[in-house]
Amino acid sequence: MKELYIKDIDIKNNVTKLDRCSKFIEVNGEQIHYKDEGEGHPILFLHGIAGSLFIWDKWGKRLKNHYRVIRPDLPAFGMTGNTHNNDFSTDYYINFVKSFAEALGLEQFFLAGHSTGGQIAYETAALIPEKVKALVLIAPTGFSKINSSVLSATFRLAFNTFGKKHITWLTSRYLLKKYLKSMYHKTEMVTEELTNKFLDNILQAGNRQSFFNYFNKNGWENTLTISEINTPTLMLWGEKDKILPVGDASKFKALITSNRLITYPDSGHFPFDEVAEKSCIDFVSFLEEYI
Predict the structure, then answer these.
(1) How far apart are CA 132 and CA 280, in angstroms?
(2) What share of the chain is helix, strand, coil (3-state, %, to 5)?
(3) Taking the CB of residue 69, how many other CB atoms lie within 10 A of it?
(4) CA angle, 56 as apex, 51 and 58 as ends, to 5°?
(5) pLDDT in tens, 181-221
(6) Which residues in the chain show pLDDT less than 70?
(7) Residue 261 φ/ψ region, left for φ over 0, alpha for ψ in the -120 to 50 degree band, beta for the rest
């Protein structure tokens, strides 16, 4: 039981957790942690809930030799940590992406988002289509809320009132690993190293409470915005995704004007990690059409 009671840690000010690519920039009064690597056409990546910029590492290594790869820790997650205003609305995150791009001087960019980050991405593209050259959505929310039934006990707490009171101090490395295995089809990929990366980011001061608040925000389902997207769009989806069903992909395809769908039979919720090489080739092939 002692494993459950893990205190918050201050990752942001722990120099050993940063590397030479780590940067901070002030956006809307918040200190945002991000990585900015490579040169060429900029690609802005948005991670999902409880994630961090590190989830894009495999793609980042492949892409940074040909593109400018920009990966922020979204407010309330990773080393960016909790927001000062506790605003977890989709509108807040859309405004963040717009302001972050402006702070980096991005006139136009490719935009890619995973899961809840995918929803932020397509709603941003609908708001500022002149900025987004092409859009890549990887198992985005919009039709379905994240399936809590497959989550482990600690993470199901995020959906009830007990969790609201206790999730700020209740965490388990063991249950986190089970949670990650529900997201991966290739469960052998859920190593101690991967688990510890997620754990470090969850334990950043304030992030556990943010995790609960974000899970319980309104606006998960938003079919109206989807129908407004005119940006060329690629969707990538793992056919073994237990978190957001691949069946949602056909619903997106029916509403997005210009789109393409690729599914992966041997991947769960993280195709950019589980089938990194194949999915990255598909990603690049799509982007090259719009350069």
Answers:
(1) 19
(2) 40, 20, 40
(3) 25
(4) 140
(5) 999 999 999 999 999 999 888 888 778 777 777 766 655 56
(6) 1-18, 145, 147-172, 215-221
(7) beta
80-101 burial, b if ≥16 CB within 10 A, otherwise e? bbbbeeeebebebbbbbbbebb
For 253-267, give one letter per residue: b (16+ CB within 10 A) or e: eebbeebbbbebeeb
Of 204, 176, 203, give the one whose Cα is nearest residue 190: 176
Alpha carbons 169 and 209: distance in angstroms, whole number: 9
Query: CATH classification of 11-146+218-288 is 3.40.50.1820, yes or no?
Result: yes
pTM for this structure? 0.88
pLDDT digits (tens, 9 = 90+) for 81-107: 887 777 888 889 999 999 999 999 999
Residues belonging to the chain: 291
Residue 27 token pair: 């956006």
Provide the residue ranges of all domains of the chain, joining segments of one domain with +.
11-146+218-288
